[in-house]
Amino acid sequence: MAEIRSDIEIARAATKKPILEIGARLGIPPEALLPYGHDKAKVGADFIAAQKEKKNGRLILVTAINPTPAGEGKTTTTVGLGDGLNRIGKKTIVCIREASLGPCFGIKGGAAGGGYAQVVPMEDINLHFTGDFHAITSAHNLLAALIDNHIYWGNEQNIDVRRIAWRRVMDMNDRALRHIVGSLGGVANGYPRETGFDITVASEVMAILCLAQDLKDLETRLGNIIIGYRRDKSPVHARDIKADGAMTVLLKDAMQPNLVQTLENNPAFVHGGPFANIAHGCNSVIATTTALKLADYVVTEAGFGADLGAEKFFDIKCRKAGLKPDAAVVVATVRAIKMNGGVKKDDLGKENIDALRKGCANLGRHVQNVKKFGVPVLVAINHFTSDTEAEIQVIKDYVATLGSEAILCKHWAEGSAGIEDLARKVVELANAGHSQFSPLYPDDMPLFHKIETIAKDIYHASEVIADKLVRDQLRTWEDQGYGRLPICMAKTQYSFSTDPNLRGAPTGHAVPIREVRLAAGAGFIVVITGEIMTMPGLPKAPSSERIYLNEQGYIEGLF
Q: Is residue 239 part of a domain?
């Protein structure tokens, strides 16, 4: 049996081509690239602007069933499919998100794919990369500092210190910072008040960067951020304290998409990184729209399961950017489906047809949900060596009853050669012209009805529970002109419900709303449900305990 190498060992052994050569394949001249070393570069804004009149390629979304500890391999399948399409002669670009340090050192791991379907340089992508997240963190915290400074020097805008909505952020899981008191220590340090930290990927600045069309749009959106309210409850915006210009300067380079390559030397844009459980979970609009001008096919992903990432991809990103996806792929594994059928993690290697059939309900729900947006769907069975022929056939037969097709994919072990079948099926489906994409709800639907529509149509909930304060706040925002904004649900990724332990395809559950937040710059309403946290904590044994430099100076333990 061949030796199984770790993701980082495979990535380290990759034969990378100079990034200028990767750019040249896409028609990007050297002067339009800002290299970060030899293997990564940013694409210049002037070059991007010059592509606007070109025809778009086909857009393929990769999404998945609800994540489990068994693993699904959504990013791995996204990268593998991009390689597979290039292998069969289709000019294709992969578009994925950047990795957050929080999950890398916490529990989830990196975000560069896996096995022989990775983007490289894997270590850089999973750590500091080109500094985009640091720039976003700095811009966000500059605004926080300017708010407190404005109040210290007389509070010309009459900001009510009890109603400041802007917290601070850092790109690390640190539960100790969720709720803090700042400005202690006397008069020279300002006015003490309660505040706290969120993780950078939950920052509205992150969402803004990922939804902005260009630098001018970026500055406008940053200026529209509501930082708090006056005593008369009128909103105070970032532009009111003259923060938008300096924030844009900090984000000037971060706004440019990052070009890297796959293990098979195919182009990939890795840009932006909002979480899908507490933000909208998609890579940047500018990366996706640029890729569509440069390639015949663009393969992108949306975070976590289709109930979160795909719904937000369709209802927020596609709605706001005018994108029309041509096909979607729902990723599943035999192991994860069995876990949704009640099998414990330690028993997943054993054949269990009954549990598999039971767990297929989760897969079926996601497939049917994606079809509600008018997008045709394929299922990718991400192969594990423990899968049996009988188990694979059960999934194929089940998906056929849904009017779709499931294809076995072995890209993790075999690279593009193991995913050719899916690549050909994707081309066939995308070119058939069957996509009739439309968002789940119209812009002019009342905000609470939008929330109910998502909860009932996507989560199959029976009701949404919200107290009077939440309902009144939504009505106030409608009165202020924000009623046409889409909804960004902050919900556990592990279940269709708000209970992370309720696997499968539950129905009839309630969705309790804890809080609503107006992200006026990003252009959506954040609805926080259940026990979801905007600053995660670290597990008892975080991944950081296994990450180190070996004697040769190479990083070990990243995955």
A: yes
